[in-house]
Design a protein that fits this description.
CATH architecture: Alpha-Beta Barrel
CATH superfamily: Alanine racemase
Structural class: alpha/beta
Low-confidence stretches: none
Mean pLDDT: 95
Distance between the termini: 27 Å
CATH class: Alpha Beta
Strand content: 15-25%
Shape: globular
Protein backbone atom coordinates (compact mmCIF):
# COMPACT_ATOMS: atom_id res chain seq x y z
CA UNK A 1 0.00 0.00 0.00
CA UNK A 2 1.58 3.29 -1.11
CA UNK A 3 1.58 6.53 0.89
CA UNK A 4 -1.34 8.11 -0.98
CA UNK A 5 -3.49 5.04 -0.46
CA UNK A 6 -2.65 4.95 3.26
CA UNK A 7 -3.45 8.63 3.74
CA UNK A 8 -6.73 8.44 1.85
CA UNK A 9 -7.81 5.32 3.72
CA UNK A 10 -7.12 6.96 7.09
CA UNK A 11 -9.12 10.06 6.15
CA UNK A 12 -12.00 7.96 4.85
CA UNK A 13 -11.97 5.93 8.06
CA UNK A 14 -12.13 9.11 10.14
CA UNK A 15 -15.07 10.40 8.10
CA UNK A 16 -16.88 7.07 8.36
CA UNK A 17 -16.36 6.80 12.12
CA UNK A 18 -17.43 10.42 12.68
CA UNK A 19 -20.63 9.76 10.73
CA UNK A 20 -21.40 6.54 12.60
CA UNK A 21 -20.71 8.18 15.97
CA UNK A 22 -23.39 10.82 15.35
CA UNK A 23 -25.88 8.54 13.64
CA UNK A 24 -25.29 9.63 10.06
CA UNK A 25 -24.62 7.57 6.95
CA UNK A 26 -20.97 7.82 5.78
CA UNK A 27 -22.22 8.67 2.30
CA UNK A 28 -23.68 11.91 3.66
CA UNK A 29 -20.23 13.52 3.75
CA UNK A 30 -18.07 14.12 0.69
CA UNK A 31 -14.35 14.79 0.54
CA UNK A 32 -12.69 17.83 -1.02
CA UNK A 33 -8.95 17.34 -1.45
CA UNK A 34 -7.20 20.67 -0.88
CA UNK A 35 -4.34 20.48 -3.35
CA UNK A 36 -2.78 23.94 -3.08
CA UNK A 37 1.02 23.83 -3.28
CA UNK A 38 0.94 20.12 -4.07
CA UNK A 39 2.11 18.57 -7.31
CA UNK A 40 0.00 17.38 -10.21
CA UNK A 41 1.53 13.93 -9.66
CA UNK A 42 -0.12 13.78 -6.23
CA UNK A 43 -3.42 14.89 -7.73
CA UNK A 44 -3.17 12.17 -10.37
CA UNK A 45 -2.39 9.62 -7.66
CA UNK A 46 -5.45 10.52 -5.61
CA UNK A 47 -7.65 10.64 -8.68
CA UNK A 48 -6.63 7.08 -9.53
CA UNK A 49 -7.93 6.16 -6.08
CA UNK A 50 -11.30 7.72 -6.84
CA UNK A 51 -10.95 11.31 -5.60
CA UNK A 52 -12.49 13.74 -8.10
CA UNK A 53 -12.97 17.02 -6.17
CA UNK A 54 -9.94 19.25 -5.65
CA UNK A 55 -9.76 22.64 -3.97
CA UNK A 56 -7.33 25.43 -4.82
CA UNK A 57 -6.72 28.80 -3.14
CA UNK A 58 -4.40 30.46 -5.64
CA UNK A 59 -5.74 31.13 -9.13
CA UNK A 60 -2.56 31.04 -11.20
CA UNK A 61 -1.37 27.84 -9.56
CA UNK A 62 -4.74 26.24 -10.17
CA UNK A 63 -4.88 27.29 -13.83
CA UNK A 64 -1.43 25.83 -14.41
CA UNK A 65 -2.50 22.51 -12.90
CA UNK A 66 -5.63 22.46 -15.02
CA UNK A 67 -3.53 22.95 -18.15
CA UNK A 68 -1.34 20.02 -17.12
CA UNK A 69 -4.33 17.76 -16.39
CA UNK A 70 -6.68 18.28 -19.36
CA UNK A 71 -7.64 14.63 -19.64
CA UNK A 72 -8.79 14.11 -16.05
CA UNK A 73 -12.47 14.64 -15.34
CA UNK A 74 -12.02 16.62 -12.12
CA UNK A 75 -14.29 18.97 -10.19
CA UNK A 76 -12.26 22.09 -9.44
CA UNK A 77 -13.31 24.15 -6.42
CA UNK A 78 -11.97 27.64 -5.86
CA UNK A 79 -11.74 28.11 -2.09
CA UNK A 80 -9.57 31.22 -1.76
CA UNK A 81 -10.38 34.90 -1.52
CA UNK A 82 -12.16 35.96 -4.73
CA UNK A 83 -10.80 39.23 -6.10
CA UNK A 84 -12.91 41.18 -8.57
CA UNK A 85 -10.21 41.18 -11.24
CA UNK A 86 -10.03 37.37 -11.18
CA UNK A 87 -13.70 36.47 -11.45
CA UNK A 88 -13.60 35.91 -15.22
CA UNK A 89 -10.86 33.31 -15.02
CA UNK A 90 -12.62 31.61 -12.12
CA UNK A 91 -15.97 31.64 -13.92
CA UNK A 92 -14.38 30.14 -17.03
CA UNK A 93 -12.32 27.39 -15.37
CA UNK A 94 -13.94 26.16 -12.16
CA UNK A 95 -17.02 24.10 -11.45
CA UNK A 96 -17.38 25.45 -7.90
CA UNK A 97 -16.60 28.61 -5.95
CA UNK A 98 -16.86 28.11 -2.21
CA UNK A 99 -15.71 31.53 -1.03
CA UNK A 100 -18.27 34.05 -2.28
CA UNK A 101 -19.03 36.76 0.26
CA UNK A 102 -20.16 39.83 -1.73
CA UNK A 103 -22.97 40.73 -4.11
CA UNK A 104 -20.46 42.14 -6.60
CA UNK A 105 -18.65 38.81 -6.83
CA UNK A 106 -21.90 36.91 -7.38
CA UNK A 107 -22.89 39.25 -10.19
CA UNK A 108 -19.50 39.11 -11.90
CA UNK A 109 -19.30 35.31 -11.74
CA UNK A 110 -22.75 35.02 -13.27
CA UNK A 111 -22.11 37.58 -16.01
CA UNK A 112 -18.74 36.06 -16.92
CA UNK A 113 -19.76 32.40 -16.89
CA UNK A 114 -19.51 31.13 -20.49
CA UNK A 115 -22.86 30.31 -22.11
CA UNK A 116 -21.69 26.81 -23.05
CA UNK A 117 -21.07 25.85 -19.41
CA UNK A 118 -23.54 24.86 -16.73
CA UNK A 119 -24.22 27.45 -14.00
CA UNK A 120 -21.32 27.66 -11.59
CA UNK A 121 -21.88 26.04 -8.20
CA UNK A 122 -21.53 28.54 -5.36
CA UNK A 123 -21.20 28.31 -1.62
CA UNK A 124 -21.51 31.51 0.38
CA UNK A 125 -18.67 31.92 2.83
CA UNK A 126 -19.83 33.00 6.28
CA UNK A 127 -17.41 34.49 8.81
CA UNK A 128 -19.24 32.82 11.64
CA UNK A 129 -17.02 34.11 14.45
CA UNK A 130 -16.53 37.60 12.96
CA UNK A 131 -12.74 37.22 12.88
CA UNK A 132 -11.22 40.31 11.24
CA UNK A 133 -8.38 38.38 9.61
CA UNK A 134 -10.76 36.07 7.76
CA UNK A 135 -12.89 36.57 4.67
CA UNK A 136 -16.58 35.82 4.64
CA UNK A 137 -19.87 37.60 4.95
CA UNK A 138 -21.33 38.40 8.33
CA UNK A 139 -24.03 35.94 9.40
CA UNK A 140 -26.73 38.59 9.06
CA UNK A 141 -25.70 39.24 5.44
CA UNK A 142 -26.16 35.67 4.23
CA UNK A 143 -29.91 35.77 3.65
CA UNK A 144 -29.61 38.76 1.30
CA UNK A 145 -26.71 37.13 -0.58
CA UNK A 146 -28.66 33.91 -0.98
CA UNK A 147 -31.72 35.71 -2.32
CA UNK A 148 -29.55 37.55 -4.82
CA UNK A 149 -27.78 34.35 -5.90
CA UNK A 150 -31.07 32.63 -6.67
CA UNK A 151 -31.93 35.45 -9.06
CA UNK A 152 -28.82 35.05 -11.22
CA UNK A 153 -29.06 32.82 -14.29
CA UNK A 154 -25.52 31.44 -14.24
CA UNK A 155 -25.27 30.82 -10.49
CA UNK A 156 -26.41 27.66 -8.75
CA UNK A 157 -26.46 28.27 -5.02
CA UNK A 158 -25.38 25.07 -3.29
CA UNK A 159 -24.96 26.14 0.33
CA UNK A 160 -22.48 27.56 2.82
CA UNK A 161 -18.77 27.35 3.56
CA UNK A 162 -17.17 28.34 6.85
CA UNK A 163 -13.78 28.36 8.57
CA UNK A 164 -14.59 28.75 12.27
CA UNK A 165 -12.14 30.04 14.86
CA UNK A 166 -9.19 27.82 15.73
CA UNK A 167 -9.62 26.49 19.24
CA UNK A 168 -8.95 23.31 21.18
CA UNK A 169 -12.07 23.91 23.28
CA UNK A 170 -14.60 21.34 22.07
CA UNK A 171 -17.54 23.35 23.37
CA UNK A 172 -16.44 26.38 21.35
CA UNK A 173 -15.82 24.22 18.27
CA UNK A 174 -19.29 22.73 18.44
CA UNK A 175 -20.82 26.16 19.01
CA UNK A 176 -19.26 27.68 15.88
CA UNK A 177 -20.23 24.80 13.61
CA UNK A 178 -23.72 24.64 15.11
CA UNK A 179 -24.34 28.31 14.34
CA UNK A 180 -23.37 27.76 10.70
CA UNK A 181 -25.85 24.87 10.53
CA UNK A 182 -28.58 27.12 11.93
CA UNK A 183 -28.03 29.57 9.06
CA UNK A 184 -28.02 26.69 6.57
CA UNK A 185 -31.31 25.36 7.95
CA UNK A 186 -32.81 28.84 7.86
CA UNK A 187 -31.97 29.14 4.17
CA UNK A 188 -33.60 25.78 3.47
CA UNK A 189 -36.71 26.73 5.43
CA UNK A 190 -37.03 29.86 3.30
CA UNK A 191 -37.10 27.80 0.14
CA UNK A 192 -33.49 27.84 -1.06
CA UNK A 193 -32.62 24.58 -2.84
CA UNK A 194 -29.28 23.95 -1.15
CA UNK A 195 -27.46 20.73 -0.29
CA UNK A 196 -23.88 21.58 0.68
CA UNK A 197 -22.47 22.58 4.05
CA UNK A 198 -18.71 22.80 3.57
CA UNK A 199 -17.03 22.91 6.94
CA UNK A 200 -14.40 20.91 8.75
CA UNK A 201 -10.72 20.30 8.05
CA UNK A 202 -8.08 17.85 9.24
CA UNK A 203 -8.08 19.11 12.82
CA UNK A 204 -11.82 19.33 13.39
CA UNK A 205 -13.67 17.20 10.86
CA UNK A 206 -15.27 15.04 13.57
CA UNK A 207 -16.88 18.04 15.26
CA UNK A 208 -17.96 19.50 11.92
CA UNK A 209 -19.61 16.24 10.86
CA UNK A 210 -21.37 15.95 14.22
CA UNK A 211 -22.85 19.40 13.60
CA UNK A 212 -24.05 18.66 10.08
CA UNK A 213 -21.19 19.17 7.62
CA UNK A 214 -21.75 17.53 4.24
CA UNK A 215 -18.28 18.28 2.83
CA UNK A 216 -14.90 18.33 4.57
CA UNK A 217 -11.86 20.04 3.11
CA UNK A 218 -8.69 18.04 3.72
CA UNK A 219 -5.16 19.00 2.69
CA UNK A 220 -2.13 17.89 4.69
CA UNK A 221 -3.68 14.64 5.94
CA UNK A 222 -4.16 13.60 2.30
CA UNK A 223 -1.08 15.04 0.62
CA UNK A 224 1.54 15.36 3.36
CA UNK A 225 3.40 18.55 4.14
CA UNK A 226 3.12 21.34 1.60
CA UNK A 227 6.01 22.90 -0.22
CA UNK A 228 7.23 26.05 1.55
Amino acid sequence: MNESTKRLKLVQQRIEKACIDCGRAPGDVSLLAVSKRHSVEKIIGLNKLGVVAFGENHLQEALQKQQELPDLNLDWHFIGNVQSNKTRAIAENFQWVQSVDRLKILERLSAQRPDNLEPINVCLQVNIDLEPQKAGAKPEEILQLAAHADGLDSIRLRGLMAIPRVTTDLVEQHDSFRRVKVIFDTLKSEGHDIDTLSMGMSSDLEVAIAEGSSMVRIGTDLFGKRKS
